[in-house]
Design goal:
CATH class of the largest domain in chain B: Mainly Alpha
Shape of chain B: flat
CATH superfamily of chain A: MetI-like
Order of helices and strands of chain B: HHHHHHHHHHHHHH
CATH topology of the largest domain in chain B: MetI-like fold
Number of helices of chain B: 14
Mean pLDDT of chain B: 89
Shape of chain A: globular
Oligomer: heterodimer
CATH architecture of chain A: Orthogonal Bundle
Order of helices and strands of chain A: HEEHHHHHHHHHHHHH
Low-confidence stretches of chain B: none
Radius of gyration of chain B: 27 Å
CATH superfamily of the largest domain in chain B: MetI-like
Number of strands of chain B: 0
Distance between the termini of chain B: 62 Å
Strand content of chain A: under 5%
Helix content of chain A: over 70%
Structural class of chain A: mainly alpha
Number of helices of chain A: 14
CATH class of chain A: Mainly Alpha
Mean pLDDT of chain A: 90
Structural class of chain B: mainly alpha
Helix content of chain B: over 70%
């Protein structure tokens, strides 16, 4: 009887643990090993020591990818600011407000593939954006939005922001609704104007949500793939202008069959995400304690 | 009398002012709300109309033409005839539905002991699981690819999409929170009555946390439905593709046929939009439930 009881929790955990060990834990360990090998899947991995890392750090495209991924992190503060502003806008009792919230949420659920392809149609040289700009006379001839290297990354970031905003808005909205009304009344009595009111009450009140959004959106930014893949037609942009870490990982592994090299990129990616998550949680939680 | 009327008017004037100010403010909010709505929805509206444009309707014109004059369903037929779109749908539905059912069974089974049982190593296992949450999933794709080809031999089948999604740390975490909200007394009473743990889980706990299960189900379904990178690595035969992978294949095939691509986008987005309209409340609750201080 006692034996059965002692085993029960482990039996309940077993199916999930089996799946997670097979598809998450084992792969993490395997990637560490592969990163020290020359591997093309067809032949067994050959130990090469630090060669992949040495080649990687001399690889110009890798540094480009790393830079691009760091630039991409700018979507995090953008999403936090726009998300909070939009949440404040929709956090009022107006007829039809639920419909607006739902409309803002449509890009989130539509899926990054459909959204990216839709935007590719809009941004095409013969697309809607150019015909709009030409008709109001902002430009004299159509801009090649998708073929201009200096725009590639920016457009992808804009797309990521556009796709994610509704999601983060909903999270901040839920947070706003937990802030007691009395705090705003007190701020009003203290003579705060509308802007100061949000600075002194809303922002501190939303700390947990800000932490969550910072962690989630910066992970998403570092892991970005689909937007870049679709917008650049799977090539990463002219002069690698749209190559991010995950795109480069994908290219090395599944285009060039350099699985060892790709694993080394994966290790760099892992270290970056670890540092970022620790930084985000520590930094933002310290803020909570202070308030 | 005259005096009284005068004071009435004096009161009346500021009152209409306040009313006017309030109305103007409301109008201003609606203008802002509509402007944002245009930004978030207009790209889809344009793609939607483009998908019904006939050969005589320009995609590109100055000024732009939104509504098709030469309305046609030919774009949809062309896409449907040249690609096994029916298969894409069916595959996406099979993958998403079976993932949701099995994942919910697996993760709710694991979440129960994490929430309500004391056993050696509980916290260690739980925090190790949580730690894997920040590992980028793309990092695991290289060994998972090797597993698919070498060990499980499910490359180019939809099993390759279902198997790795059978349990997810995030869902275990969310359901653990849900189980924690169930009073201990209830479980103890069932134990006294001689119910086994499996029976308590199935017959007592799962019905209680049904709202959380619905939320987790929706999140899992939408993630699986919209997933692209892993499915694109696994599925190569057209007939085996899911909607997202198929849509990218379509985009390659119909490179210069914007009307056809637009039709493909609409076909992909419509099912998930319908689901969203039906289950809107659960969608929203699922999000806010995920973050609690």
């Amino acid at each position: 009887m006692t034996r059965r009881l002692a085993l029960t929790p482990y039996l309940f955990l077993a199916p999930s643990l089996l799946v997670i060990i097979t598809f998450v834990v084992f792969p993490i360990i395997a990637v560490v090993y592969y990163s020290f090998t020359d591997y093309n899947i067809v032949n067994p991995p050959v130990w090469v020591g630090l060669e992949n890392y040495a080649r990687l750090f001399k690889d110009e495209v890798f540094w480009q990818a790393l830079t691009h991924s760091f630039i991409y992190l700018l979507v995090t503060p953008t999403l936090i600011i726009l998300g909070i502003v939009l949440a404040i806008v929709v956090n009022r009792k107006l007829p039809g407000i639920n419909m607006f919230r739902a409309l803002y949420y449509i890009p989130v659920i539509s899926g990054s593939i459909a959204v990216s392809i839709a935007w590719r149609l809009l941004l095409d040289t013969n697309g809607l954006l150019n015909s709009l700009l030409l008709s109001i006379g902002v430009v004299k001839e159509g801009v090649q939005w998708l073929a201009e290297p200096s725009l590639t990354l920016g457009i992808a970031m804009l797309l990521t922001t556009w796709m994610g905003l509704g999601y983060y808005m909903m999270i901040f909205l839920a947070g706003l609704q937990n802030i007691p009304e009395e705090l705003y009344d007190a701020a009003l009595i203290d003579g705060c104007n509308a802007f100061q009111k949000h600075l002194n009450v809303t922002i501190p009140g939303l700390r947990p949500q800000i932490t969550f959004v910072a962690v989630i959106s910066s992970l998403a930014a570092i892991e970005v793939f689909t937007e870049v893949f679709i917008l650049t037609g799977g090539i990463g942009g002219i002069l690698n202008s749209g190559v991010t870490m995950v795109f480069y990982l994908w290219k090395q592994a599944f285009k060039l069959q350099h699985y060892g090299m790709a694993s080394a990129i994966a290790m760099v990616l892992l270290v970056i995400t670890l540092i970022f998550s620790i930084f985000n949680i520590r930094f933002l939680e310290r803020g909570t304690e202070a308030t | 009398m005259i005096e009284l009327q005068a004071t009435k008017r004096q009161i009346a004037v500021p009152r209409t002012n306040v009313m006017l100010k309030r109305t103007l403010e409301t109008i201003m909010w609606y203008i802002i709300l509509c402007a944002v709505a245009v930004l978030t929805v207009f790209p889809f509206v344009w793609v939607f109309f483009t998908s019904f444009k006939g050969p005589n309707d320009p995609i590109y014109s100055v000024p732009p033409q939104l509504i098709p004059h030469d309305f046609t369903l030919a774009n949809y037929l062309r896409v449907w005839n040249q690609l096994p779109v029916g298969n894409f749908f069916l595959n996406s539905i099979i993958v998403s539905v079976s993932t949701v059912i099995l994942n919910l069974l697996f993760t709710s089974l694991a979440a129960y002991p994490f929430a309500k049982m004391k056993f050696a190593g509980r916290d260690v296992i739980f925090y190790l699981l949580l730690a894997t949450f920040i590992v980028p999933p793309q990092l695991t794709y290289i060994p998972s690819f090797v597993l698919a080809v070498r060990v499980f031999h499910y490359y180019d089948t939809i099993f390759a999409l279902i198997f790795p999604s059978l349990a997810t740390v995030f869902n275990i975490f969310l359901l653990r929170q849900a189980f924690k909200g169930v009073p201990d007394d209830l479980i103890d009473a069932a134990r006294v009555d001689g119910a086994g743990e499996l029976r308590i889980w199935w017959a007592i706990l799962l019905p209680i946390i049904r709202p959380s299960l619905a939320t987790v189900a929706i999140i899992t379904f939408v993630n699986q439905w919209n997933d692209f990178l892993w499915p694109s690595l696994m599925l190569h035969t057209r007939e085996h593709m899911t909607l997202t992978v198929g849509l990218v294949a379509l985009q390659g095939m119909f490179a210069s046929d914007s009307r056809g691509i637009a039709a493909g986008v609409v076909m992909t987005v419509i099912p998930i939009l319908i689901l969203f309209v039906i289950l809107q409340r659960q969608f929203v609750r699922g999000l806010s439930g995920a973050v609690k201080g």
